[in-house]
Design brief:
GO terms for molecular function: aminopeptidase activity. By secondary structure, this protein is an alpha+beta fold. The chain has helices at about 30-35, 55-65, 95-100, 135-140, 145, 150-160, 170-175, 190-195, 200-215, 220-240, 245-250, 250-265, 325-345, 355-370, 380-385, 390, 475-485, and strands at about 70-75, 80-85, 85-90, 110-115, 120-125, 165, 180, 270, 275, 300-305, 305, 315-320, 425, 430-435, 445-450, 455-460, 460-465. Helices cover about 35% and strands about 15% of the residues. α10 packs antiparallel against α12 and α13 packs antiparallel against α14.
């Protein structure tokens, strides 16, 4: 990784560029600084088209404007976060900002200023790097180091929103008058500029509204979620084809294999992939992925590709590493499959959100009683929640630009709400028998099974977006055998 050149006072614009303590160059000569100002081609892009979701983002901003008339609304993208010393984590814009603009660049801020008939919208962005003062090659975030940015004119064409220099925004916000709301937690500088103008309660109302807006997906979002799922299916196929290499190494081979598909076809993985072999399958969020992969064990793979527009899939399959379930593995797997079938059948418009969870839990409780692992009757087990020792988690969640989407929505509109066409949620029951659980027979211990699919609520029921991945145990075995060839 190359080192940045140090800056000299003569090349500074407003603030000196931070100098690396142990850089190899002590300074910049006047002659070099002058030389770097000129001789560069005009790279302005003049034939840009609006982003594909421009109409949808405009409609979302209109709905936001209608909800908060007469108030200034400030929605930041966020800033780069340091990973170590002078390296940063890959940037991902805040969901609220990306949902309303389609833009994904760091430091961006959407500001909606109240007018007599709605709001005036401006997206504040970093402009092209300044070549006159040397910023583009001396600053660690200059375009020579991190790549070209869109000019403000280009940004206006792409996002359909007037664009201005974000470096001027904090000062303008300090002088702002009238009611203001800001989405907190992403940009400390913007929040500091508004510290005497906002309240936590009013800002939370803004965050909640933006979260609830995403409960029902539009056609663009559903299309992106299907893209994410389709890439995820191919990622699962990739993994099955290299299970022999994973056996020779570790769970990390599985993680790396799926990540390659995510980066080639999408933006990234939507969350840390869970590549849990053997007893690790009983750890719900096993993301260390450093354990062995053994023939005869199960592999619980919970992973999702994130598209370039931030929509993520979230799919789980529990696969026999050697391609064949043992009798006990199949018994447990089939119980989870039956529970998922009951849960999916309960997903339909007008149903309560909780219905699919209750349906799946009922099946699992029945099997646990049937196997003699918990004393019935089933209704007693469910009333006391005794099945939760082995089922552990809820049966699903909303899905979208966050893997656990709409998390800030009010309980009455989410968990206690009613399903509507356009909602997308996961259905993912599981059974987990911990390796140290002395309440179950020894042969059960260390077996964990989860099956998860992404379900769209339709006008007449539901559609399984991830149906291309086999779920039934015999179909899984046949699918794996076909891929291994």
């Amino acid at each position: 990784m190359a080192e940045e050149l140090p800056e000299t006072p003569e090349t500074a614009d407003e603030e000196p560029v931070k100098q690396r303590k142990n850089g190899l160059y002590p300074g910049v000569s006047d002659e070099l600084a002058e030389n770097m100002k000129s001789g560069w081609a005009d790279t302005e892009l003049r034939d840009l088209e609006p982003i594909p979701q421009a109409a949808e983002t405009a409609a979302r901003r209109a709905a936001l404007s209608a909800r908060f008339p007469g108030e200034r609304l400030v929605i930041p993208a966020g800033n780069l976060k340091t990973r170590s010393n002078d390296t940063e984590y890959p940037f991902r814009a805040s969901v609220e900002y990306a949902y309303l603009t389609g833009n994904q660049t760091e430091d961006g801020v959407l500001v909606m200023e109240p007018t007599a008939d709605g709001h005036k919208e401006t997206v504040y962005l970093l402009p092209r790097s300044n070549r006159e003062n040397g910023e583009f090659w001396l600053d660690g975030q200059g375009e020579l180091w991190v790549g070209r940015r869109h000019s403000l004119t280009e940004a206006e064409k792409r996002y359909g929103i007037p664009a201005s220099d974000v470096r001027e925004l904090a000062g303008a916000l300090r002088e702002a008058t009238g009611p203001v709301r800001v989405v907190r937690g992403y940009d400390a500088g913007i929040e500091a500029a508004l510290t005497d103008k906002v309240t936590a309660e009013r800002d939370e109302e803004l965050r909640v509204f933006l979260s609830e807006m995403r409960l029902v997906k539009d056609d663009f979002e559903i299309g992106e979620l299907q893209k994410a799922v389709d890439s995820t299916v191919r990622g699962f196929e990739d993994v099955v084809k290299v299970l022999d290499k994973a056996e020779a190494t570790s769970e990390r081979y599985i993680e790396g294999t799926f990540f390659l598909r995510a980066r080639v076809e999408g933006n990234d993985v939507g969350y840390g992939s869970i590549c849990a072999a053997g007893p690790h399958a009983c750890t719900l969020h096993w993301v260390r992925n450093d354990g062995p992969v053994r023939s005869g064990d199960l592999l619980l793979l919970d992973a999702g590709v994130e598209t370039h527009t931030y929509y993520t899939a979230d799919v789980t399959r529990t696969l026999p590493v050697n391609g064949r379930y043992t009798e006990l593995q199949k018994k447990i797997y089939d119980a989870v499959y039956d529970a998922q079938e009951a849960g999916i059948a309960a997903v339909k418009p007008g149903a309560k959100y909780r219905d699919f969870h209750d349906a799946a839990q009922h099946v699992l409780a029945e099997r646990l009683v049937e196997w003699g692992l918990v004393e019935g009757p089933v209704e007693r087990v469910l009333e006391l929640g005794l099945q939760r020792r082995w089922t552990l988690h809820g049966t699903g969640h909303m899905l979208g630009m966050d893997v656990h989407d709409c998390a800030a929505a009010r309980t009455e509109t989410y968990v206690d709400g009613t399903l509507e066409p356009g909602m997308v949620l996961t259905v993912e029951p599981g059974l987990y028998f911990q390796a140290d659980d002395l309440t179950v027979p020894e042969e059960y211990r260390g077996i964990g099974v989860r099956i998860e699919d992404d379900i769209l609520v339709t006008e007449d029921g539901n559609r399984n977006l991830s149906s291309a991945l086999p779920r039934r145990s015999d179909e899984v075995e046949a699918w794996m055998a076909g891929l291994k060839g």
